[in-house]
Amino acid sequence: MHYPLSLALAGELEETLKCRVASFSNDDAILFLIPRHGISGGIPGVGETIRRAFASLARPDPTASGGTPTRGERLFRNRLEGSGIFGANFREAAERSLLLPKAGFGKRTPLWIMRQRAKRLFDAAVGESGFPVTAEAWRSCLVDTFDMDGFRTLVDSVNDGRITLSFFSGKIPSPFSRDMVRQETGYFMYEGDERADLNSARGGGGATLSDAGIMEAVGNAAMRPALKPETVRDFTGRLRREIAGWAPDDAISLCDWVKERIAIPLDEWETLCGAMSEKPDVHESDPYLGERVKKISAPGATVASIVHVDWEATWQNEAITLLGPWLRYQGPVSVSRIAEVFGVGKREADEAVNALAQVGELVPDVAVETENPTPDVFVCDRENLEMLLRLSRRKARPEIRERPAAILLPFLAMRHGFSSAASDGETDAAFIKKLRAFCAPAKLWETEFLPARCGRYNPETLDREIREGRLVWYGTGKERIGICGIDDLDLVFSDADYPPPPSKSNQANPASAVLDMAFDSGFFDRPRDFWETKEKIAELSAKDESSGQIRGNADVGRKSCVDAIWGKVWSGRLSSDSFEPVRRGVENGFSPVEREPPEMPTGQVSRNAPRPPRLPRALRDRWKEGAPVRGSWYSLAMDKTCGDPFDLECRNRDRVRLLLERWGVLCRPFFEHEARPFSWSGLLPTMRRMELSGELVAGRFFAGVNSLQFASPSIGRELERAESFDGLHWMNAADPASPAGLGIEGLDPRIPGRLASNRIYFRGDKIVATAGKGGRELRVFIEPDDPDVATLAELLKIPRTRKVFPERKILIERINSVDATQSEYSCIFKAGGFVPDRGRLCFW
């Protein structure tokens, strides 16, 4: 009765003290190890805590039912299932029920192997209510092992005073507890650093993410990759010792091998014998083998097998009972093959396979790549499948030499298609696709990002892609937008983010609250221009005022409507059929330009004064100025997903593919500037599964990156091209491909901060210049006689020559901390069109 009491009291003390409490017990005493900070007040405090714990154990438990009426019994049962006593009883019950097969006659199975098999069986049956082995283990513990009646009597006796609790402090342990002190010392002496309690509480089980991916693939056919036939052949050849150097050496070892494998089909026997240095003979010419090994066909079998005499009777009478041990020496096997070897029908073979699958011995629905698809269902031993998946992952990893961190610069430049690094054959809009789902300030897209990738960038390129339905832009916060393909919209918005919560600005702008009603009524299910939207807001405002739902008069003026529209844009609910509204919004600060109405003449009007125009009321606001917000607006609302894990996994894989197309290499630093649905922690398990399927490979591709790195299997060729690239190109420091702020060791320390006012100029893997403060502060790192200085001067002109929001002039105030006109580079810049202006260089 002491063991149940120790578990129950330890559980109660942990809940009360909020700290870990270890317990040991024997027939004489119970030992609790409580941290010093757990109980205050000395011995009286300890006594009061123990008395309260006993009183709590006797209280009825409102969550209990059936045979667990008290809180003490519930706490005991909660902790018993994870104890060694329950595990031992479960293992013994499984052995008695023959669910844990043992070795053949005359051979023993090591205890540690039986323990591992019992743990796997328990993991497979833990979710099955009423599993017979689990029920027998509980019965054995509660009836045969522990005195539960004595446990209840002891708790009641302490609480009603029949047993008195006395507390005192001593310097040496009581004689009754000396055995437990030695037990405690031995337990903690051999305890490792792992915290099994924390692992189980957090669901980690102590497994790494890589192992968790393997286990998940073993248990889920939808996430399990197809095995390559060459990997299966190589694995089964070694498993069955059918390769030269692995085969048995003589007749004695061959006989033991046949006995261990139980039965070897005749075709596998011939392959095994062919790998031996001397071909054996099971007939009279080899009396040793002839007496111990026989060629037998199970009743109804179409394939004969070589069977050891110890298994002869079982093989002839009930061969199918040996299916589990037989599969341990096989790779993926079809159910039809099992029926041929064991002499059973298809239905009986399926039943045997399902029985083994239920106890976790084998895995059904294993996929194997074949040239000619077959309807056969393959099954495999669980341990063998785990090894096959690990072997497949290891073979898929290419041997790639680690490159210095500096090679990352030309690698990203070529990946993103910068002007001098763009690959041949790209279409006009191909450079935009690398930026899909990236979020940035609206102004930077056509002033920094796109001109850096295409020196001849024309805004009509982006408008055409949006107008023809290949791209869509969306808001991701105040004056921040992203661009993606139509099919990618469900990747950039997660179900947790959409629809967004009502904005606090609704209270300040009643038109925004009215616009929410327009969304609910489906008004934006087709494109609407500004005037339609304004009229709808006015219509809904009038209805709400008449019903009394909105107090006061809702302002439906132009500014109120514009602010409401942009508010919905920034929350990701509205988009337009053109990028022109964003351009005009950047130009006027995303607010309508308020113009003073012309003053009407009063009094006597001169005969030569212009006549005030008479306009229809419906067109008065639209005349001359036009719509304050251009374009037609439509809703980005999507149907919510059903929450299917497989659907979520498919979307996560598409997110990984999108990022892989952008970066080429996936590592934690690149994810720091991505939107929330593209977080490293959220996509890392998916990347592990994609590695398992061969779509990604893991390795050390770049030095200085302190995280896992994933890439496509063809990354080797890209790395070789990056090493030989030496083109001159530029980018903004806040560009998606910028190395600024990544925190990668080995990159040039002269890289400026990740600010939109900084620009970086590269030549291959070297930085040739940086421009800060919008280009006014220039630092050049190549010599004045370098021929690329003239090219650098041309790149510095791009903010003035670009087609979208060109700057009025390029002004360089200082070069390498010296006045621009006094710099040794000034003559080259003057030759490129810059003119001196009061110590500065100016390009008009």
Key structural traits:
alpha+beta, 44% helix, 844 residues, three-stranded antiparallel beta sheet, single chain
Write the layout of secondary structure elements.
Elements: H1 2-17, E1 22-25, E2 30-33, H2 42-58, H3 71-80, H4 84-96, H5 111-125, H6 132-145, H7 148-160, H8 178-189, H9 196-202, H10 209-219, H11 229-239, H12 251-261, E3 263-265, H13 266-274, H14 287-292, E4 293-296, E5 305-308, H15 312-318, H16 323-327, E6 333-334, H17 335-342, H18 346-358, E7 362-366, E8 378-381, H19 382-396, H20 408-416, H21 430-433, E9 439-441, H22 442-453, H23 459-467, E10 471-475, E11 480-485, H24 489-492, H25 505-508, H26 510-520, H27 530-547, H28 558-570, E12 574-576, H29 580-588, E13 633-635, H30 645-663, E14 665-666, H31 668-671, H32 680-692, E15 697-698, E16 710-711, H33 715-724, E17 728-732, E18 759-763, E19 766-772, E20 777-780, H34 788-796, H35 798-801, E21 810-812, E22 814-815, E23 818-819, H36 826-831, E24 835-837, E25 840-843
Parallel strand pairs: 20-22
Antiparallel strand pairs: 1-2, 3-5, 4-5, 6-8, 7-8, 9-11, 10-11, 12-13, 14-16, 15-16, 17-18, 18-19, 19-20, 21-25, 22-23, 24-25
